[in-house]
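User: Assemble these into one structure.

Assistant: Restating your components, then the assembled model:
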Amino acid sequence: MNAESQFTKKDFVPTGEVKWCAGCGDFSILAQVQKVLSETGKSPESFAFISGIGCSSRFPYYMNCYGLHGIHGRALAIATGAKVANPALEVWVAMGDGDGLAIGGNHFVHAVRRNVGIKGILMDNRIYGLTKGQFSPTSFRGQKTKTAPMGTVEDPLDPISLSLSLGGTFVARTQDRDPKHMAEIFRRAHEHEGFAMMQVLQNCVIFNDGAFDDWCTKGKEEHTIKLVHGEKMIFGMENEKCIIRQGFSPKVALVAEVDANNIVIHDEFAADPGLAGFLAQLNGTHGLPMAYGIFRQIKAPAYEAEYRRQNDEAVAKKGPGNLQKLLNSGETWTVS
Amino acid sequence: MNDQLQLKDLDKVVIRFSGDSGDGMQLTGNQFTSSAAHHGNDVVTLPDFPAEIRAPAGTIAGISGFQLQFGNQRVNTPGDFPDVLIAMNPASLRANIKDLRPAGFAIVDLDAFDERGIKKAGYADGVNPLDPEHTLGKKVIAAPITSQTMAALESLDMPKKDKERCKNFFTLGVLYFLYDTSPDLTLNWINVKFAKKPLVAEANTKALHEGMIYARNSGLFQSQYRVGSAKLRPGTYKSLTGNEATGLGLVAAAERAGLKLFLGSYPITPATTILEEVAAHKDFDVKALQMEDEIAGICCAIGAAWAGNLAATNTSGPGIALKGEAMGLAMILELPLVIVNVQRGGPSTGLPTKTEQSDLMQAMYGRNGESPIPVIAAKSPAHCFDMAIEASRLALKYMTPVILLTDGYLGNGAEAFRIPDVNELPDLTVKFRTNPEGYQSYARDPKTNARQWVKPGTPGLANRIGGLEKDKLTGAVSHDPENHDHMVRARREKVEGIANDIADLEIIGDQKGGDILIIGWGSTYGAINNKVNRYRAAGKSVSQAHFTHIFPFPKNTLEVLKKFKKIVVAEMNLGQLNSLLRAEYAIDTIPLTKIQGKPFTEDEIEVVVDKLL
């Protein structure tokens, strides 16, 4: 971050009306992105915002940056091309849970796997909003929606576990009702070189209101835990609970009842993905709390940098391409 | 020259190589092609391989073929029917003997005609495939190719199987002798290719020489043939397949535009070799991305086009179906993008390794909404180079996606490509908008109707574009009815305006008009041209007009059509161009269609046209 950025949040706010529903969690996400980017010292034109289709995908229109509002599910593929073509652009993608994980699931998988230098905000409200209330890949089993009047009969996809299984180099969760935490995650993503996967639990006031209340309203301390690098995993109203290991799974225990050495300590930068995979189970199911923070961040070369490196190598080896020489190469014969 | 053999001069010869897909027929064919081209012949080739990589050996399903025509004049096509058939096994003979010209001959590997081989080819028990009844009375020269090769390599210390593999070079030697062609090019190739395997190089070299000696001394051949040099336009030539030419054309276009080339792609037969060609030129700082699917292939290209690259995507028909939505996005964003469709037999998975021209309507209309995208088509393998540059020119100048149609026949087929002086290639220099003063993202150039290209990152020009309908000037999202009407028409007018910027439709033949005009597009050019030349030589009023630009049509199209009494539209589909011409010009036309996964033969054109004369 640049403490003396010449830009303010206002520089990142374009003219024109924001057309999300009153009370939508997206407003809060937008405000934090604008704020954080204004503090980076980079001009609004240095940023490209790319999206697919959905409520969240209107995001590029609301940033005073370069923006491309694409087609449903394909934002990450478009962004991959833009980033490889111009690695100097800071590319952000806004996607929803349907956009990013259902129709765009294939691109999500491969963008994370390739470690393309994209900051991906997955605005996860566990519902289809723009099409008015159908279940999404992150809706919980049994959730009643217009297309599942008796409740869904499928288990949700967990984007944290998915990203970790793909070797994700930056995997984080935050939520729209904790602006400070969101800002911190966005800041860290801005500084990350590869793909930054940020799941933001985001409340849809119209079609899935209160979906995350357990983890963000009064009493949330009982059900949430913040991942802080180097610290013991302790939570609860009175910090009385902690996470310990039971086999390969986390278990909630009382601090008073366990040996302090058995409380799990978070390590964001662990090279081994085991710990992050273990912590990914803290997703608010099976009596476990919902974890927020960075599950894992490791240094690894970004896809576009690797591509650049190979092209540089080819140029160093063969010299910069010469078209006439290329056309004249191989078996030729002359007709006079 | 050999004293005992009679030497005969020929104008052109068609050879078809046929064997198991592991027999090296493509390699053998390509080697002969290069040598004939060096000899000064005009050569056009067409490989024909099975959809399966290694179907069961010895069966008809496993046959891999390669046909070439070489001559002392422009040959235009790989030829309709072979004069010489090389059949490495009974299945190859069985599948191809009916195509062999009655005056031609087949050379078969007698050693492969054992009980097992004959059975695998599907002949009934006790049948001798070499009996005239099964060779349709055609001349078959049965040479023990495998055993002769083994005998020639007897002194070499290598496994039997490896020795057997050299039989294709033995065969090549036979042909080099028969057609009085120097083997030097192939000998050189062997030495380079097997530089690290000297024993293999020695074996292949020996097999090739022994093949030549065998052809001279075995007594099986009575004649040796000579095909003189063709009078091609002076210049330096190389043999290129259509897909290689397309890839090189894209590289050349980017150089001439001063842009980086970006190809977003996904492997699909028969288009993949374009991606392979482009990926080989990293020294040009090209980006050739093999993505996770067809949609990602075009979408990353759209992102790269937005970022300021010359962007392209290549595929075949099924891939175009998947890319449809994204093509609409590129169209409404008004970004330059080259979309190459190497057409194959459809529908659905269809005939992946065969050729067809049945994606024309898909190119014209295969998107939701009013989505006009220019459509152009290459007419020969080497022409793919020019058309890749033309597609890039139109895309960059008019800020639009452009569809370039080629097909499997062009993509895999090869012909002599005259290497151009790169300074004579079109100048495609582009100007990015950098001045923020008064910028409106959808303001149009009064001449081309194109909007301006702004690279993201440019100071003072931040703007947002997308797939939603946008205001005609500011580019802001607009649902206004009049604005939408205006924009739909403006996008179409822009594309239609390209008609002012392309060459007229040329008449090959009677400039003032005549009895019959045969119209074609794409890869049918050579077959139609050969037939038209034959009619004209016989004094018939038959002319040709061939479309390279289909949407929009050249401005003089109706004028040309009106000059002829009868118009035949020949295409490898059920009449798609025919329908477009009728719809556009309300004229009467006669469709001449074929949809067998194979190019037209002259005879097939004759059957229809003779009736009209």
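The longest helix of chain A spans residues 303-318.
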